[in-house]
Specification:
GMP Synthetase, Chain A, domain 3; alpha+beta; 2 helices
Length: about 80
């Protein structure tokens, strides 16, 4: 299930995946307000794949988003892979 919406929806996700995605989204809006989640895909119970939309030419924004994904994943135990 791939969701092409302005906000990431949590359809088909487990409670921990939802919690992880919402934590990541909250941190993303605070740290990188111009970035947005284009789609989120629950792959397994402890694995989420999502696509961010932001300026790809800036390495710092990608690095900051990756750090936020790691922090959210460490708190809940669900791995976030960025595309």
């Amino acid at each position: 299930m791939i969701m092409h919406q302005n906000k990431a929806t949590t359809n088909g996700m487990t409670d921990m995946q939802r919690k992880t995605l919402l934590r990541f989204e909250k941190g993303l809006t605070q740290a990188l307000p111009n970035s947005r989640i284009v789609w989120a895909l629950p792959v397994e119970d402890d694995f989420i794949e999502l696509h961010l939309e932001h300026d790809k030419r800036t390495y710092r924004k990608s690095l900051k988003a990756a750090k936020l994904a790691i922090e959210a994943g460490e708190e809940t135990g669900v791995l976030i892979i960025l595309r």
